[in-house]
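User: Here's a protein and a ligand (adenosine-5'-triphosphate). What would the complex look like?
Assistant: Let me lay out the input and then the predicted complex.
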Amino acid sequence: MAQEIVDLFKKITGHAKEYGFIYPSSEIYDGLSAVYDYGPNGVELKNNIKQYWWAAMVQMQENIVGLDSAIFMHPKIWKASGHVDAFNDPLVDNKDSKKRYRADVLIEDQIDKYIAKADKEVEKAIKRFGENFDEALFRKTNERVLANVEKATNLATRLANAMREGNMAELGAILADEEITDPDNGSKNWTEVRQFNLMFYTQLGNISGEEGKLYLRPETAQGIFVNFLNVQKTTRQKVPFGIAQIGKAFRNEIVARQFIFRMREFEQMEMQFFIRPGEEMTWYDTWKRFRMQWHLALGTPQDKLRFKDHDNLAHYANAAVDIQFEFPFGFRELEGIHSRTDFDLKSHQELSGKKLQYFDPELNESYTPYVVETSIGCDRMFLAMLSNAYCEEVIPDADGKESTRVVLTLHPALAPVKIAILPLLKNKEELTAAAKTIYNKLKKEFSCQYDEKDAIGRRYRRQDAIGTPFCLTVDFDTLENGTVTLRDRDTLKQERLTVAQVEDIVRSKVSLAKLLEGLDL
Ligand code: ATP
């Protein structure tokens, strides 16, 4: 990673801690790797993300209903889903550094290096030839560019084949052929590559051995599949219909880094949409479009989001795409949209011996529905929003000079605090009393903060740093005519308004309903 990217990412993680968004878990005991706690502002932001997802995916959808299934489930569920046999990552250790890596990630990094080399040639040529440079032609004809692109393509194919076949020896051979070294110390002294199952497990108290082995769910989806008939019958939904759930998932990730991007305990927001067999590609496209709309409605720039088809389809899928977001460390998966066929329902049907079929009254026949799934990590969405919002800006000060502020330009509907109520002076009883009266009124509708400590400029900065879209200041005019000043986080404009006008402005800006207006399935 380039130094400025490392620095930016450090700043974001530091900011998240300093302002009560995210703390490392068990910090006083030196932390627990890849586990994090959400602080007072973090929990608000996270809840707002979940609320927006639930409103768009359940509340707004006539044919989608919610579920909250238990984390513990019968161990056979994970056999049927394929997780016991196939939820593995290829693990490799370096004998010198004693560090553990995912072999596929090391190889993907090598592919990126070839691409970067090709891009560097192009950059050099742009500098050399200036305005008249034809980049497309150069990419098609320059030998060094072509050689590096070919190396990247061949390697990607070799990796995809090895992963599809679960061929660990081939992954080891790639590490050797490409002379891939440990990023930590440059050593090529690797162990064999072997499969590592990512599920955590625990033991039921009253049953010993394999029988009592309970897994912590690695995805929330299976709770939906095994409840498919319960939900369908109790809600009398007709195919097509969906079941949505938000909940914790657990994965024993080998390489858990990049802050909350890859955690061992995290939260998923998943929706399984049950459809007629044969209609999956239409629904797949529909959900791709809708989910992208959901992201864009938050004001995330279009060029920070993109679709990326899977090179490697999971055992259950016949089509799969990621919505990638440009995190500070590059484009990475934020959400997955998968056409899961009838794999899960059929497997549960076989292993449990219970019928999981739907009688379609229009077709007058029974079938196992196909499923299109949308699955997004709540924590990844949090990181995407935090990194997209983090901004250092030079702004004019009250005394005419300039200073730098850190501001989170979060969408107001997601901001942890919607409005801060600030008496101009702390030790003027009549100002603080008026401000408290306004606070006590507004807090019933909005998440508000009352703050009287420090100069007003410093209080504005504190609110900017947590992304509060509005600050309301109570001054001596308030006592005379009931008006207050409302400061806008983004434009820095200050307006003199009545409290009722403030309420209207805040209500319309933080409204979830407004955010949902632009979405249609
Ligand atoms: P990756 O390739 O990054 O490991 P995945 O393809 O295994 O992700 P899915 O199984 O499709 O992920 O899970 C759906 C979503 O859950 C992902 O898009 C991501 O947002 C989130 N997610 C998965 N694993 C983690 C994790 N370890 N920490 C945080 N979020 C995760």
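Summary: The radius of gyration is 27 Å.
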